[in-house]
Specification:
The chain has about 525 residues and is mainly β. It has helices spanning about 30-40, 185-190, 235-240, 515-520; strands spanning about 45, 65-75, 85-95, 100-105, 110-115, 120-125, 135, 160-165, 170-175, 195-200, 215-220, 245-250, 250-255, 255-260, 265-270, 275-280, 285-290, 295, 305, 310, 315-320, 330-335, 345, 360, 370-375, 405-410, 415, 430-435, 440-445, 450, 455-460, 465-470, 490, 495-500, 510-515, 525-530. The strands form seven sheets. Strands 11, 12, 13, 15, 17, 18, 19 and 21 form an eight-stranded mixed β-sheet that branches. A five-stranded mixed β-sheet has the order 1-8-6-2-3, with helices on one face. The chain has a five-stranded mixed β-sheet with strand order 4-5-10-9-7. The radius of gyration is 22 Å and the shape is globular.
Length: about 525
């Protein structure tokens, strides 16, 4: 593998190593943009030393309960028969506190972080990549300086220290790089991992634990004859997002799990760049959903029985599955079933080739049938269990007297929010929120001129509730779209308008964006600001 030599000075144009025909990549930050972003980050970035993220808020870091180190670096792994695969990956270790707070990841995935609600955490990130990077804790509600924003990206050999208290409910949360224009290529190389937040209050529910608590991080890749991941910036790949026929689960291909005949808790995370999955059991058995992005459903909302589950990039779902009903030696396969999402065009009036709202039979986001993972039932006595009763009630949402409206658009090979592409200093009045003030945030994928595509929209530093969907091309997929529970990512279909109830609890400037990573890198991202309180 030809590796660029790490340096403390950013190159004028940094590219990842070539992985096959058409594998050129988007250039890295320019020096001017990087220096500007370090100022915006509150001087939290250093090269060759640590800077505490909390210092940007003028607070002393204090002593953490858990202190970890995560390093991003190139490497090679034997993932397929033959040559080793060049990857980029996170490695980590525990510096202080519980030794079980970090467990080695499988394949190329980073370590799994096991954190407790209410725990104070300090994480030192070291960038040993040949280009700028930063880590975002997807779904965690943390201060501005600990969020891993694009403006916080550090140069090669640079470091960044995060300091925050875990306030999220127990659940499954991804972490991944977030440098502007480079998130897609870096995730595709292998930079991703998961955080499992636990809460002792959940121990009495009766959910499976230990070996019966399984995480499945699902990704797709293109792999060439030399076992290298192929990342392309060809027009269709950038427009629709990177898709590949090879499914990786937990950082390895051909995933298979040996399963005891008893109930299991399955945490499913779609960590693909752009692919949407329609996940189902191969024998047609129903899926029992107990949780979504922000943890367990309330007793009013679940468990839910669904024929399949739709997962957009970086959405999560938790399933309860009783394998005691399966015979020893039986095999069950988790598959992604075939589906179609029709695309639309807006602004194609007379003289432009068609009428407004014209639909096209193009399927962005995948849609072909794929095998995800095999579950092999082991010998032994069956130990059946009952589907647990989930605690709590669906929350009563505070009345929102203000609406924030964002139109989603895609034209000229670029994504737009409210007709604007990402700029560091650009902030609209409607993107200014007040601390603790509830708003209805509407994502409108029906009005903007250009191509209507599915967009998984992610808002940093908040958990929200989906309160309404109108229009769109969900079709049969509606049976598997999970809008219940606390969410941080929502799939907005072509021609659809989705309303969210959002109540920010952290001050500062954050971002919201499409989580199709190629769309994000092409500028389908904006800042919003939370002030007051």
């Amino acid at each position: 593998m030809n590796r660029a030599k790490p340096t403390s000075e950013p190159p004028q144009s940094t590219h990842l190593p070539q992985t096959g025909p058409g594998a050129s990549l988007v250039p890295d930050h320019s020096r001017r943009r990087f220096l500007k972003s370090t100022v915006l980050a509150g001087a939290t970035v250093t090269v060759g030393g640590f800077a505490h993220a909390a210092a940007a808020d003028g607070k002393a870091p204090g002593e953490p309960d858990v202190e970890l180190e995560l390093t991003a670096a190139p490497g090679e792994l034997p993932l397929f028969k033959g040559k080793a695969t060049p990857v980029w990956r996170y490695e980590g270790n525990v510096l202080k506190g519980r030794k079980d707070s970090l467990r080695l990841g499988e394949g190329y995935l980073g370590p799994t972080l096991h954190l407790l609600r209410g725990e104070r955490v300090r994480i030192h990130f070291a960038n040993n990549l040949p280009e700028a990077s930063i880590i975002h804790w997807h779904g965690l509600i943390v201060p501005h300086a600990a969020d891993g924003l694009p403006s916080h990206a550090v140069l090669p050999k640079g470091r960044y220290t995060y300091d925050f208290t875990v306030t999220n409910p127990a659940g499954t949360y991804p972490y991944h790089p977030h440098p502007h224009m480079r998130t897609g290529p870096q995730v595709y190389r292998g930079l991703a991992g998961i955080i499992i937040v636990r809460d002792p209050a959940h121990d009495s529910i009766g959910l499976p634990g230990g070996k019966q608590d399984l995480s499945l991080v699902i990704q797709d890749r293109r792999v060439d004859a030399d076992n290298r991941f192929v990342y392309s910036e060809a027009m269709m790949d950038m427009m629709g997002g990177m898709l590949g026929p090879t499914v990786m689960v937990n950082g390895r291909p051909d995933a298979a799990f040996r399963i005891e005949r008893r109930p299991h808790r399955l945490r499913l995370l779609n960590a693909s760049n752009a692919r949407i999955y329609k996940l189902a059991w191969s024998d047609g058995s129903p899926m029992h959903v107990i949780g979504t992005d922000g943890g367990l459903l309330s007793g009013d909302e679940g468990p839910q029985q669904r024929p399949f589950v739709v997962l957009a990039p970086f959405e999560r779902v938790e399933l309860w599955e009783d394998f005691s009903t399966r015979k020893p030696g039986a095999q069950l396969t988790l598959v992604s079933e075939q589906f179609t999402i029709n695309m639309g065009m807006v602004g194609m009036g007379p003289g432009r080739g068609g009428g407004p709202g014209m639909m096209m039979n193009m399927n962005m986001g995948g849609g072909e049938k794929l095998q995800i993972a095999r579950f092999e039932i082991q010998p032994g006595d069956a130990r059946p269990g009952a589907l647990p009763k989930l605690p709590g009630q669906k929350p009563r949402l505070a009345e929102a007297k203000r609406e924030v409206r964002t139109t989603l658009g895609f034209r000229m090979m670029r994504g737009f929010l409210n007709g604007r592409n990402f700029k560091e200093d650009d902030l609209l009045d409607q993107e200014k929120l007040k601390l603790n003030e509830p708003v209805i945030w509407t994502f409108d994928n029906a009005s903007e001129m250009g191509m209507q595509m599915p967009h998984p929209m992610h808002i940093h530093a908040v958990q929200f509730r989906v309160v309404e969907r109108k229009g769109g091309s969900m079709g049969e997929l509606a049976k598997g779209v999970m809008d219940d529970g606390w969410k941080d990512t929502v799939l907005v279909f072509p021609g659809e308008t989705v309303k969210l109830h959002v109540q920010p609890t952290e001050r500062g400037t954050f971002v919201y964006h499409c989580h199709n990573l190629e769309h994000e890198d092409m500028g389908m991202m904006r800042h919003f600001e939370v002030a007051g309180g």
